[in-house]
Amino acid sequence: MNITAVDICTVSNGDIDMSGIAKLGNARFYDVLSPEELKTAAADADALLVNKADVTADLVAACPNLKYVGTFSTGFNNLDIQALKKRGVVCCNVPDYSTNAVCQHVFSLLLMFEGNTEKYVRSVSEGEWIKSPHFCYMPWSMREVYGKTFGVYGFGSIGKAVAKVAESFGMKVIVHSRVRPDNCPYEYVSGEDIFKRSDYLSFHCPLNKSTERIINSRTLSIMKPDAVIINTARGGIMDEGQLADALNEGRIRGALLDVLTNEPMREGNPLFGAKNCYIAPHISWGPKETRARLVKIVEQNLQAYINGSPQNLIF
Predict the structure, then answer these.
(1) Which helix (H) or strand (E) holds 157?
(2) What is the rounded distance in angstroms from the CA atom of residue 175 to the CA atom of residue 177?
(3) Strands across the sheet with 47-50, in order?
(4) What average pLDDT does range 224-233 have in this prediction?
(5) Distance (Å, rounded) from C-alpha 245 to C-alpha 271?
(6) I need a labelling partner for 96 at 20 to 30 A (CA). Which of 11, 162, 212, 295 fits?
(7) In 169-239, which ranges are continuous DSSP H helix?
């Protein structure tokens, strides 16, 4: 089996073992390729492994032997599902590998924001506390999260983990998802109400037609002016210009983001420099343990396909 694996630099800095994949066939590993380079690299591939590379109808047509596509990700909006279905290509993703890491990142951003932790640590390292006439050095405000209402939009494995941690901080958790979950231990509310009632609103939903730009001028207008948006899901669920306007005009208090519509961030993005907007470079899945788990499941998915019992099928 010819295996072409691309986008390796987006998964590993040389710190993740890829030998398990290499053992499954004639494997070739590449970093990020242009569309034309990808066509050449995958021309004789039986299996194609990608992270962010677009698997287009044009690419599928250029790969006559292609029988399997695996993603180094949970999301698969970079795959042309219609073209792959038409060719009968088996497609598998990696669900749930990053649940704990993303949950950790949500609260890393939130606690940094409400405690102004980064500013205080940097200030001390720059010698500012040494200059203080007394120990009460509080140039930046801080807030407790205890007692606040924490909205979870999307109640899959990550949403459930985030809800549990929010509850442990003493927050009131409310939930909204496309399908009302069975035996949900938290109050289930409508899509409208979760925007209206949340002090913190954390998104854990897929990007699809119903969620595309769900964060927009209308939904932002019904939020509390003190509310904070947290998005570690997909950038496309935000209208970035309308969110930037709401932040700069003080209509909501903050946005804590790990994702953008176009990544890496492009010049002129309206959220760059927006008031109280913290942006991390899509690193919620970045811990070494998380990436090692991801690669192992990609290997297991391909092995399961070779064995005739594919797992984690996208369709």
Answers:
(1) helix 157-168
(2) 7
(3) 26-29, 2-5, 47-50, 68-71, 90-92
(4) 98
(5) 9
(6) 212
(7) 191-197, 217-221
Residue-wise DSSP of 232-297: -S-GGGB-HHHHHHHHHTTSSSEEEES--SSSSPPTT-TTTT-TTEEE--S-TT-SHHHHHHHHHH
Mean pLDDT of 74-92: 95
Specify whether 204 is catalytic: no
pLDDT beyond 90 at 203: yes
Give 15-25 pLDDT, tens digit per residue. Answer: 999 999 999 99
Which residue of the set 128, 249, 263, 266 is catalytic?
263
Model pLDDT, residue 73: 94
DSSP assignment of 95-155: TTTTHHHHHHHHHHHHHHHHHTHHHHHHHHHTTTTTT-SSS----S-----TT-EEEEE--
Q: How far apart are CA 242 and CA 301, in angstroms?
A: 40
As a whole number of angstroms, the distance between CA 20 and CA 284 comes to 24
Concatenate the DSSP letters of all residues of 201-212 into one string.
Answer: EEE----STTTT
Cα distances from 252 to residues 30, 106, 199, in angstroms, run 43, 18, 10
Between CA 158 and CA 204 the distance in angstroms is 7
Active-site annotation holds for 293: no
Out of 282, 291, 293, 299, the active site residue is 282
What percentage of the chain has pLDDT greater than the value 70? 100
| Contact (CB, 8 A) for 140 and 118 | no
Taking the complete model, does pTM exceed 0.70, yes or no?
yes
Pairwise CA distance, residues 269 & 171, whole Å: 33
| Whether the predicted pLDDT of 89 surpasses 90 | yes
Tokens standing for residue 164: 């549990």
Model pLDDT for residues 91-105, shown as the tens digit of each residue: 999 999 999 999 999
**E strand or H helix at 39, and its extent?**
helix 35-41
R_g of the chain computed on alpha carbons: 22
Is the pLDDT reported for residue 77 higher than 90? no
Instruction: Please check whether residue 100 is in contact with residue 287, taking contact to mean a CB–CB distance below 8 angstroms.
Output: no
Q: Whose structure tokens read 């509080």?
A: 138
